Amino acid sequence: MGFVTASARSTRGRGPVRAAAATLVTGLVAAGLLAGADVAAADGTPQQQAGATATIGGLKTYGEAVVHGDGGDQPVSAGLFEMSVEGGGTLQTYCVDLHNPTQKDAKYQETPWSGTSLGTNKDAGRIRWILQNSYPQVNDLAALAHRAGVRGLTEQDAAAGTQVAIWRYSDGADVDAVDPQAEKLADYLQKSARSQAEPEASLTLDPPAVSGRPGGLLGPVTVHTNARSVTVTPPADAAITGVRIVDGTGKPVTSASNGGRLFFDVPERATGGTAHAFSSGGGSAELTVQASTTVPVGRAFTSDSRSQTQILAGSSESTVSATASADWAGKGAIPALSAAENCAKGSLDINGANTGDEPFTFDLMDTGYTIPAAASRTVTVPLQEDQAYDFTITGPNGFQQRFTGVLDCRTQSAETGNAIRTLSEPSPASVGGTAGGTNLAATGGSAVTPLIAGTAIGLVVIGGGVLVVLRRRESTGR
Q1: Interatomic CA distance for residues 26 and 350, integer angstroms
Q2: Could you read off the pLDDT of 333-384 as tens digits, one per residue?
Q3: Using CB atoms within 10 A of its CB, is residue 457 exposed (0-12), middle (13-18) or buried (19+)?
Q4: Confidence class of residue 228 from pLDDT cuts 50, 70 and 90?
Q5: Phi and psi at residue 172, in whole multiples of 5°?
Q6: What angle is formed at CA 378 by the lines to CA 200 and CA 97, rounded to 5 degrees?
Q7: Which residues are CB-contacts of 122 (< 8 A; sequence separation ≥ 6)?
Q8: C-beta neighbour count of 174 within 10 angstroms
Q9: Which residues contact 154 (CB under 8 A, 6 or more apart)?
Q10: Sheet strands (E) in 37-86
Q11: CA 296 vs CA 47, 111, 122, 162, 459: distances in Å
């Protein structure tokens, strides 16, 4: 339903009021290099997100493995990473992107499989089975060793064997664990794996954007979560605008559970707000929901810094959050926009609904598009792998929304063979969990060869001739 993913970042704001409903989308993608910097909005306004946000800290429990390729054998470290969750909590993850480096202290966002290489990987469900049937979900190492038919397992062996089995499915890698017990575990997990469905998100709001006329309820926005309940935070300027967050009966709400329906109650004469322009009767507001829960095993985590994609192996009680926005106007076009990366199509899908009484018209790379009144459309923007994008869509009544990110849909092996990238320093920094008394670099990094300089991503200018497909969706009635 068009959730905004980690890499489909969105910023919202209200600039000067524009009298016309015609709008312009600018593709601001400059040719250059991106050296691990997060692609974030320049204005620093909050970005739409859903689920857990975390910073990677380093490999905690790992052993050694060897990747076999045309260029020879490449030693790598293999095991569990640890992440610190914003707001509290700890995550344990494995890598599903062997040939890409880990950027030090990179920020990650919980992401649907469809926005990662897992979305086009027929074996993604087998990876989830491995996660649920191995370390650390199975922390009885004696029992795990018995199932795998090995004499015994240390935590390092268990982590290394599990990571090796995952790489065989995530990257199609020819990789073996160095320790014989870890290698036997990897073989057992690979042969035993069965496909399982993608886990549900820890917390999302659907849809993440709504619109309508003031003087009534805008929504609904439905809560999807595995938490018992979520705390609902009203717009920051609610005291000025008069906007309330309510249920379907108009009763103010401060908490909700899975399946709960939230509405923006917008007064007919909503006023105020430094980030809004109201001279034409338009405005916007944003609500936030937050909860403490364990993130489901198998959820993907991605970073706009092109740090290697991770998959969740374990979670403490962690803070998760999501945002949704509302736009309103007294007349004319009233757009509500969200976006999601689509790795199956190699694109960014911009989902738009127009609840106004006039068409919402805009240009996208020399092509004009119109969303009729009371209708919905999806604009599909094809992108190249590793391509950074930056689109700002402007509209009537000061409407403005920006989407930024980097399309990261393929593992490196699918692009350039088995060349393993490494960084100019252990990345993340070695923070314990030794194998044979030696601190190793991050997964995907060599333990014995000279380290190559940090990777840089060439940004490709989006040309005016890029095909943009507009497909009709049924009106959502929002």
Answers
A1: 14
A2: 999 999 999 999 999 999 999 999 999 987 776 677 789 999 999 989 899 9
A3: buried
A4: very high
A5: 60, 30
A6: 45
A7: none
A8: 14
A9: 141
A10: 50-51, 53-69, 72-85
A11: 23, 12, 20, 18, 33
Q: What one-character DSSP code corresponds to residue 446? A: B
**pLDDT over 70 (residue 408):** yes
CA distance 267 to 252: 14
CA distance 385 to 375: 31
DSSP state, residue 301: E
Beta bridge partners of residue 354, listed in sequence order? 335, 375
Query: Contact at 8 Å (CB) between 265 and 217?
Result: yes
Greatest Cα pair distance, the chain, in angstroms, is: 75
Cβ-contact 295, 117 below 8 angstroms: no
In the predicted structure, residue 15 carries a pLDDT above the cut 80: no
What's the mean pLDDT in 425-450?
Answer: 32
For residues 219 and 232, the answer to whether their CB atoms sit within 8 Å is no
Structure tokens at 39: 């692609």
Q: Which residues of 202-228 are buried (b: 16+ CB within 10 A; e: fewer)?
A: bbbbbbbbbbbbbeebbbbbbbbbbbe
Q: Are 389 and 27 in contact (CB under 8 A)?
A: yes
